[in-house]
Design brief:
Chain lengths: 144, 77
């Protein structure tokens, strides 16, 4: 199990490949992956950049808790969550969730669960800078 | 010992500071802590509260040494 926060840009595909390479070959049959990437538009406005604030300690603790819950609900071989913090630009990856399991059903369902629970419970806050320089806090999640 | 009160994101800007230290009064709740720390502002309706980094309701007791955090709805991912 791996939970990590990244103050600098990270490559989700390299992170995924490195993590999977550590798992025993042949032990899993399904890998489900979600990668969230920053858009250059939100609520009808052009967005130039964003800062992701978090609550050091609580954020990691809750991500680890969400992983533990997923592992108690589905038969999983492993889980991975990586999340950016700090200043982010459009096109940058924000979040990676990945799940390894014997079969696809558990992998798909658990991967979705990690993302939805993260969005609802993990203490992160987005502050956007629009193209015209205006700054605003994102008030709510977009519909899944 | 004392109670550490922390504010995050838009709430930190609204309160105008990131942190307060309060003396425990022995009979505190999270909502009561807000009322003592930020008497000039009502606690926002949609506020989230954490005590020692676990989510809690406004009527949850707060003890000496606790860290109480107030923040807006979360928007990660």
């Amino acid at each position: 199990m791996s939970v990590s926060l990244h103050p600098e840009p990270f490559d989700p595909w390299a992170r995924l490949a490195a993590h999977q390479a550590q798992l025993p070959a042949g032990s899993f049959g399904a890998t489900a992956v979600f990668v969230g990437t920053m858009r250059d538009f939100n609520e009808g406005d052009d967005v130039r950049g964003m800062t992701l604030e978090h609550y050091p300690g609580m954020t990691e603790k809750h991500l680890e808790g969400i992983v533990a819950e997923a592992r108690s609900r589905w038969p999983l071989d492993d889980c991975l969550i990586a999340h950016r913090v700090g200043p982010i630009e459009p096109g940058d990856p924000i979040v990676l969730t990945a799940v390894w399991s014997a079969h696809r059903k558990a992998a798909f369902e658990a991967c979705r669960y990690l993302m939805e629970e993260l969005k609802h419970r993990a203490p992160f806050w987005k502050r956007e800078t629009l193209k015209d320089g205006q700054v605003r806090w994102v008030e709510k999640n977009t519909e899944g | 010992m004392s109670i550490t009160v922390r504010y995050f994101a838009s709430l930190r800007e609204r309160v105008g500071r990131a942190e307060d230290q309060l003396d425990a009064d022995g009979n505190d709740t999270a909502g009561g802590i807000w009322a003592r720390a930020v008497p000039e502002q009502a606690m926002p309706d949609r506020v989230l509260i954490a005590i020692n980094q676990e989510y809690a309701d406004a009527d949850h007791p707060v003890r000496d040494g606790d860290e109480v955090a107030f923040f807006p709805p979360v928007t990660g991912g």
